[in-house]
């Protein structure tokens, strides 16, 4: 009883005394003196109490001190997720209470540097860049040179990791001769610069690298020149050096064994490689019980597991076990993915997902050839789909969830944060392009970091409330939709060695293989024909030969009997207009007589089977909102854009903004109110620095600002150049304006694949809206507008080149012409037949019958 009374008095005194600050420091320093698991549990319990009691700025600063040491303990014990949360909480506390004004506590050294490195280690690249840039600028303004140098090294490492080698070289070069650089720091920067130069030039390192550099660099250089025995010898020296001269933490020791396994594997010593991998697993799962591969329940978000399981799969000779190991990699990747809050980070990580998926499909394809087991093809399709436009699918599902639960405050807050994230990112893009002010960039980077923290906390609450998002579609669902559409679906998976082609009808699935090396030259050469009008017209016979060869190579003849074909392209195939391929050899130079695919089949595109099977709930409002800047009296004039506006006005209910009324402000104000959006303007695919963008009369709209919109438009028509072109990202496709509209929520789009001719575009658009006004089907209207163009006798043969009509591709729902229209046609035809029969039977005057027949 006395002990309980003493404990109560102690806690009571802690709660109300003036010495809370001192109590926090005592708790932290006690733990620092003896950092073990038991004391860590005690510290965490104390931290929870301190958080509820802290009132003053001094209390909060003491808590930051405690949390920084807790974070380092977690980091050193490979608890990366928990370490990240702890450092994030400490930094948020430091900023919220403006503790820099009352203390010179080094938040950079204690929290920001380790947090930036942790983001990099967990592949959270966007947050890593924002954090490192933040503390680099802070160090520069505070005159903390060593922290500034650390920032440069860590940022250069990050850029190298995400293949931004030119940026890594530039940054390393800026700091490599800094007067306060230590020898080890200079070696790190030199190593990053050399590795980036090798990666850019795709060349091998010089022999000098094997002599002058530290052991880590020399063994890696030996690997690059494929001197594997030499690399193994150097690695063993490096390993001995690490084990004898450094106190390695758990994660670093595991990494050493992973590297050992990689070197043994390259020396074809698989037994030693597997032994090293098992050593790494035992270090990362010290108390786990498993024989070869651990169960999912033993795993946690640690990317070292991914390295282990991927290499294990490479070594494993049993396909079933190899696939199991790859699936463990995917599982850990998904655990890491839960902490990524930006689509940029998710897209950057898709490359590894993609490589792993290809290897899984390779294994399944080989097994299918032996067994003819159709379930293997279904599994292969799932691997293909799992890496297709992941971020697009995720955003669509989040918006669908919000539509289903429109009053859920958590989902509303999540969407508003995602919207704000893209708006701030857009400001950051513009700042880099126009001003490049370090202070403003730092401010925006910090804002993005804060948004990320809020999204993470929300994700935990939302995942507790709702089931996980799942975008995989069953084969049965796909085939059911195909039966409804009288269609066949072709999905391509553009791999490093093989382009896999899934052909799915309403009753079966096939898998075909195309050698990537053999195909890529033909594909890119065909795409290049559309760079200018002369590419085709200068040698029409050559074009016809290439168009038919590509038709055969891509196995389109396998679906030649199907009237409707859905194409899910991939890689370079995103830029191939399949309608312009030729289904047979021809010697004619008359484009109107050529056997184009468009003449016999309707082509519709989609980004994945998920979007193909997505149920579309159209807006009742089918009016057109149109923007036509025209750009009169400038070098950007679009003379025939006015004709487009007139044709829309004649055929559709519309509100059209021309010339100086076609502003970005009006677009943002009106865009959510209409069923159809038409933009007739200039657009650009962007470059590695400048994102895709589209012009209004007064301003340019960049891709990230488009991402921030929430649209439920029935159809978007982008009558502008290169709206389907952008930086090509593995698995995600082109970072184009059209993708921006998809991300904003648009399901049906018509857009262009190259720089299009003003006059021919106007003619096609007039035909498109004439057909659309009757059919209410963009799928049908797009097809018919091209057929009409080819059959138009007033258009010269030169202008009937596919360059002029093939640019526009339709992504979206296959909808047949309006049922009302079909019903009307049926009534008219029935009425005519009835009248003729009636007159034949009831009217005796042959003149009446003759006159009536001639009328029809």
TrEMBL record:
Gene3D superfamilies: Tetratricopeptide repeat domain. It comes from Seonamhaeicola marinus. Keywords: Membrane, Transmembrane, Transmembrane helix. Residues 549-813 form the CHAT domain. The chain crosses the membrane at residues 821-839. This is CHAT domain-containing protein. Signal peptide: none annotated. The keyword Cell membrane does not apply. Pfam families: CHAT.
